[in-house]
Amino acid sequence: MPTLEAPEERLKKFKYRGKDVSMRRKERIAANLQLRKAKKDEQALKRRNISQFSNDLVSQVSVKEERNPPLKLIIEAGLIPKLVEFLKVAPLPNLQFEAAWALTNIASGTSEQTRAVVKGGAIQPLIELLSSPHLTVCEQAVWALGNIAGMGKAFTPPFTFCLLCTPSQITFLRNITWTLSNLCRNKNPYPCEQAVMQMLPALSQLLQHHDNEILSDTCWALSYLTEGHNERIHHVVAMGVLPRLVELMTSSELIILTPSLRTVGNVVTGTEQQTQMAIDAGMLKVLGQLLRHPKSSIQKEAAWAMSNAEFRVQKEAVWTVANFATGASQSQLTEADKLHEKEKLCLLMEEAGGIEKIESLQLHQNCHISQTALNIIEKHFG
């Protein structure tokens, strides 16, 4: 799970979020909030032709200057259904934006306050706003849905449209990725298979992005999806994301390294085939490097992943030693013997029942095989 604390303002606006956020994200959020404030003030001036009732209602909820808006009073006054109605007023995108902003603020409160937004019927209208021709409206709807998803409310918004976003819409993509991560994090209930299959293509494409925040949230989303049953792991690895995840494990950015390592570690808890796919993607080489990482938390994660693949790691190690011993010169074998690792190999062979196998070969009809078996017993196990 993420480990770094998020700024207070992020925690207020993005519920249950921010445990692994870099200083770059803190700066981005602070700047983003300032831009939103300026945009909101400008749009407030343009809303003078909207009914006075609409102006008054929305302004009560979405005034950003208040650190602790009276959310409880707003809910008790029964204003949420009216805000939900405003989401449907397509001819007035400014009003839709303000209503979505107000619901975002309410959904950033307690679980009960978020639940009130859900009970007020906000989810479907917010999902429909994702197809709005106005980017600011879409982005605010994503933000609101992200707060709702943080509560654990399962829904399946059509986020595959994010693949059509241009690089200039980076903030929008970040919000979408964060919301996807929240949706994948749900445990009760776990996202249904249909929802997972809808989200995976988007996550697979987002994994190819170069923005650190998008990569971080995407990797966390995949780590949540690979927790638990082998079938969940299968859905993820079937997308062909393992090579990219292993590549991201070499990142110098901790916010990318940590979740990518966690995801691969989850994969190797699965079937032999799934573990082999991780090994084929180059996992072992990178894990070996991460065991020497300066941060102990990364060393621990790498050791955990390595232990999950222990049997296959031992098998690969034995093959490596066997290949070396077969083709090495006498001087190389002498140097290898000085490493004092022979005892460990002998112990592994004994634990695996190898001595009995070798002893039985002493009775083999082929004289060369029987003599070799005798030599091994006398030299290494005598």
TrEMBL record:
It comes from the Eukaryota. Residues 1-57 form the IBB domain. InterPro entries: ARM-like, ARM-type_fold, Arm_3, Armadillo, Importin-a_IBB. Keywords: Protein transport, Transport. GO terms for biological process: protein import into nucleus. SUPFAM superfamilies: ARM repeat (SSF48371). GO terms for molecular function: nuclear import signal receptor activity. ARM repeats lie at residues 78-121, 121-149. It holds the Pfam family IBB. Belongs to the importin alpha family. This is IBB domain-containing protein. It comes from Neotoma lepida (Desert woodrat). The lineage of its organism: Eukaryota, Metazoa, Chordata, Craniata, Vertebrata.
